[in-house]
Specification:
- The chain is α/β, with parallel strands linked by helices.
- The protein is about 40% helix and about 20% strand.
- It has 14 helices and twelve strands.
- Strand 3, helix 3 and strand 4 form a beta-alpha-beta unit.
- It is globular.
- The chain starts with a helix and ends in a 13-residue tail after the last strand.
Length: about 375
């Protein structure tokens, strides 16, 4: 894809502000924003050096382009590209990042940019939080999942073999720059992957938004409204983050479907279902279980599954995976002592927290024989 094909039709970007006192930061959303990257940086007061962390897939489309935009503005740049995929989000990926930062002689004044999806955002954010005890970083998410969810909120982490995001911290970016046109190069599978998180926001908080999504026939229809879709999700995300930065209460609603979803990913050693696919299965399964227990309004699970099917997302968990998934749930970081805090729906658009145990997921309604 040529650069002018992506930047054509650039409009005035939207700006949201995540209000966290000294850790507040802007979210810019707009078509063609990648070309405006250098114009946004002076407000962040970066140093003269900018380190770009990306993966090979994203690098092929946007690596040279991003570096050129920055160099033409007078910044010194260095770029490190890693293997794509969840397997990269582990401790073994950190030393090469630290070594490259040291070789570039990055200081606490200089800026690290994460150019990629959720894996690069989480990994790069954790590297930024720990290198020299913390350097500034900026998120430029290139996947739908990262644009609507993981790039906002300051959760940075790496995985352990026992589970996802088990080692990490809260470290807010200095800014998030979201260009919806970067999604044009996203494979269909990972577009659907991101739609699972989009659907999540409708489920937990915004029934009208969910109804609007149900009216979109395909990816092209969704892309025609993508700036508005991203802005809606980011508005909801920032609201949760502002109310509960450390994820100890209100923000936990964002974990809808994630307890089971993370366990599915871990049980498959991150080589099976993608994050969004696993979350979709988790949302559907937990809603079937809670509805059968009388904790969710009747008919909710059927409507949810309809919307997931519409966007090509899975919604049934094979019973053959049950032992491995239940074992992974016991390692979930949301399992505080003997209590497992899960997110349930009262109805579509309204969620609540429910204290239970891992036994909750043993109910046969959650599994497909």
């Amino acid at each position: 894809m040529k650069e002018n094909e992506v930047t054509a039709g650039c409009r005035e970007p939207r700006k949201l502000q995540v209000e966290l006192g000294a850790n507040s930061y802007p979210i810019w959303i707009g078509e063609g924003l990648l070309d405006q990257l250098a114009e946004k940086l002076p407000a962040l007061d970066p140093g003269s050096k900018i380190f770009i962390l990306t993966d090979h897939h994203v690098d092929a489309f946007y690596g040279d382009w991003t570096e050129r935009v920055l160099r033409e503005a007078g910044y010194l740049t260095k770029r490190l590209s890693l293997e794509p995929g969840e397997a990269t989000k582990g401790f073994s990926s950190l030393p090469p990042i630290y070594e490259a930062l040291l070789e570039f002689q990055c200081t606490r004044k200089d800026l690290l940019i994460t150019l990629g999806g959720g894996v690069i955002g989480d990994l790069g954010g954790f590297a930024a939080a720990t290198y020299l005890r913390g350097i500034p970083f900026m998120q430029i998410p290139t996947s739908l999942l990262a644009q609507v969810d993981s790039s906002v909120g300051g959760k940075v982490a790496v995985d352990l073999p026992q589970g996802k995001n088990l080692v990490g911290c809260f470290y807010q970016p200095k800014a998030v720059l979201i260009d919806p046109l970067l999604l044009q190069t996203l494979p269909d599978r990972y577009f659907r992957d991101g739609m699972a998180e989009v659907i999540k926001y409708g489920c937990i908080r915004d029934a009208a938004f969910l109804e609007r999504l149900a009216g979109l026939a395909d990816r092209m229809a969704a892309m025609s409204l993508m700036t508005e879709i991203i802005e809606t999700c980011c508005n909801h995300k920032k609201s949760y983050v502002e109310a509960d930065e450390r994820d100890l209460g209100e923000r936990m609603h964002l974990n809808f479907g994630h307890t089971l979803g993370h366990a599915i990913e871990a049980s498959e050693h991150y080589e099976g279902h993608s994050h969004g696919e696993a979350v979709a299965m988790g949302m559907a399964a937990i809603t079937r279980i809670s509805e059968n227990m009388g904790l969710t309004h009747p008919g909710t699970s059927e409507i949810l599954e309809q919307i997931l099917r519409q966007f090509g997302l899975p919604y049934r968990v094979p019973a053959s995976q049950k032992p491995a998934i239940l074992a992974a749930i016991s390692s979930d970081k949301k399992n505080l002592g003997r209590t497992l805090k899960v997110v349930l729906l009262k109805t579509l658009g309204e969620s609540y927290l429910w204290d239970t145990t891992a036994a909750f997921f043993e109910a046969e309604e959650g599994w497909q024989n």
